[in-house]
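Hey, quick one: can you model this chain's 3D structure?
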Amino acid sequence: MAPPILPILAVLAAFGLVVIIIEAPNNRGTTCRIQSCVDPNSQLESQLRNNAQEALRAIGSNRMVTASNNRANRGQHVFNNGLIGFPRSVLQELLRDVGGYDEQLNNLVQDLIPLSQSVQNLISTMVARFSSDEFYVDYNADVFGEYVRELRKALVAYLKADTSPNQNDRYRIQETRRRINLIAREMVNHEVYVDPMARDRWLNQNQNHLENNNLVRDALKEMFQNILQTFQKASDKIRVFRRTNN
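Sure thing. Here's the predicted structure for all 246 residues.
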């Protein structure tokens, strides 16, 4: 006699496992039951990992994505907090290369405020908390970091060529523009600045959170769609002091 199924199912459910029972005919014309246990956390992690890997491939990266299970003391940001300082980091790297760092940085940053203060405040405060005994995995930090490095490198190369007093430096500027547009487009398509588990937890906490989520999402979409135009505002000033220094 086959063992009773229901007590077994109760035990498996207590451990967070989903039991799938498939009834299939056997070669004797009778029906047998095939049982398999599925861990929803494993399924979720696999999906997040695959999505992250696909995002990296979209910008030509061959590196393998890595996960983090670390939990921040103040909670996990829904939108990566590094978004706020990104424009400044681009200018810092550029000015270290071409000179004028101390004198020009603060002046140039004033022209690069693609996100309103209210949106910046939301990015800083939209956090979800996971206890140490809860399942949590983050692939966003790794993917976001790779995208930011690639986008910063492309923007610095573009600004350096666009503001150079030497016309020969503009040789590959169109190729660099295409690279910037590709990264920015895929950044929006894959929402690499979002921690999916933090977002879902945060949205489930309060139905009114959806409005703020959509507000930030739309602002970031606009920011990255117009990334070249935004940095063009600083380009004219950079061109002036580079010519003066030379």
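One thing worth noting: The mean pLDDT is 83.
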